[in-house]
Amino acid sequence: DMGGHDTYMHKEISEQADAVDRVLRGRIDDRFSTVHLGGLNLDAREARGIRRVKILGCGTSYHAGMIGAQLIEELARIPADAEPASEFRYRNPVVDPDTLYVAVSQSGETYDVLAAVQELKRKGARVLGVVNVVGSAIAREADGGMYVHAGPEVCVVSTKCFTNTVVAFALLALHLGRIRDLSVADGKRLIAGLRKLPAQIAAILETEDEIKKIAEEYAGAQSMMFIGRVRGYPVALEASLKLKEISYIHAEAYPASELKHGPLALIEPALPTVAIVPDDDLLDKNRAALEEIKARSGRILAVAHREQEKADHTIVVPKNETELDPILMGIPLQLLAYHTALAMGRDIDKPRNLAKSVTVE
Ligand code: F6R
């Protein structure tokens, strides 16, 4: 049942304020400015012993894991990174007892992720699952974890589950941080930020008509470039994946800092750039990248916290705490991909060559 929407993708994008409300519900502890995650099976002593976090997933879940790794490193000061599960599994990785492994999957059935979990467990590692589908194979195989409570996701491409997974990682990072060195003040600040998310998401969704107009301008493009820095880079990767999956427009994502090391050669009027430009400590750097692109007559769409002069269009999103900004900046770009694909007459819920869950190698 699409509940009055033309596609499941549109329905699922539109459900995100409620979905984020669900992932937060019952987990916030104001007394200690932390969050409770009952299913982790990881006590405080064990949590303090973690020396490294390795996050594994595929596709969109891998991108959510990249943001998760940044959140964990920033809030809990534990070195963390994300890697595609399939790459990890085939490179005979060093499996270390002081590393916490986290497997991320919407379906909980993706074979490459499941196989990585099984291999890790065989070697005695501790593996958590960050999973949407309750009782799925990865959820059962993991030592513990958290459900992301996005609700059923029917469209082949993931939207609301991506957002909820990133919020789930923010909760995990806050939890680990408050067991270690994150201050009460920072805990409070982030909890207040998390509570603001549903209303801010609703506000972004209200700008859909404006995003649709922009999408219709870009619908004919042969190729598009997505750039961001640090927190903005996984957002760029995910937005680029979403666009290519449903519109079949070729898209690339690069860290903005890498532009001058090669991809700047591609910039010309026919290759539009989508730039993630948050109001954070990297704002000036990001603006410099816009100037470089403008100097080559490249068209620019900025996703930012205020209007960007160098951009042809700016989608302004509400500001939250810096660490949580990527959660909101991804949402208008889901709508951008959606309306671009719609304008091109694509079969949005069932893109060619793709399946919702990849249970084979
Ligand atoms: C992208 C997409 C895929 C999945 C990937 C992992 O929109 O849907 O890239 O994210 O196949 O699937 P899960 O999360 O079910 O393990």
Question: Could you characterize what this model shows?
Answer:
By secondary structure, this protein is of the alpha/beta class. It is 45% helix and 16% strand. The chain has 14 helices and twelve strands. It has helices at residues 8-14, 16-24, 44-48, 59-76, 85-89, 111-122, 137-141, 160-179, 184-205, 208-218, 232-247, 283-295, 325-329, 331-343, and strands at residues 28-29, 34-35, 52-57, 80-84, 99-105, 126-131, 144-147, 223-228, 250-255, 273-277, 300-304, 313-316. The strands form three sheets. It has a five-stranded parallel beta sheet with strand order 4-3-5-6-7, with helices on both faces. Helix 2 (16-24) packs parallel to helix 8. The longest helix is centred in the middle third of the chain and has 22 residues, at 184-205. The chain is globular. It starts with 7 loop residues before the first helix and ends in an 18-residue tail after the last helix. 54% of the residues are buried. Residues 58-61, 105-107, 110, 113, 157-158, 241, 245, 357-358 line the site of fructose -6-phosphate. It is an enzyme of class 2 (transferase). It catalyses: D-fructose 6-phosphate + L-glutamine = D-glucosamine 6-phosphate + L-glutamate. This is Glutamine--fructose-6-phosphate aminotransferase [isomerizing].
